[in-house]
Amino acid sequence: MLKFYCSGAPNPTKVALFLEESGLPYNPIPVDTRKGEQHKPEYLAINPNAKVPAIADDDAVVFDSTRSCFTSLRKPANSCPRTRPRPVANCCRG
Fold this sequence. Notes:
The protein is α+β, with helices and mostly antiparallel strands and 94 residues long. It has helices spanning 10-22, 41-44, 65-73, and strands at residues 2-6, 26-30, 54-56, 61-62.
């Protein structure tokens, strides 16, 4: 399952909306940027740029918001296994 490090800022919100619409399973992990949590060593190990959003899975960590969306397309949803990326308009859900 994807780990989605997020805050209420526009870029993380954009990725959150994408993840919801795509139906991909993910675990949201809030990062309070007002408290500076993005500068803590445990978060810097995930994203050395100290920015949100970031998406982590077993294979890699992606921390560019637009790239996060496209990388997520490569991950098969439980109900829609695939081996290649698919266009968003050609969704298996219906």
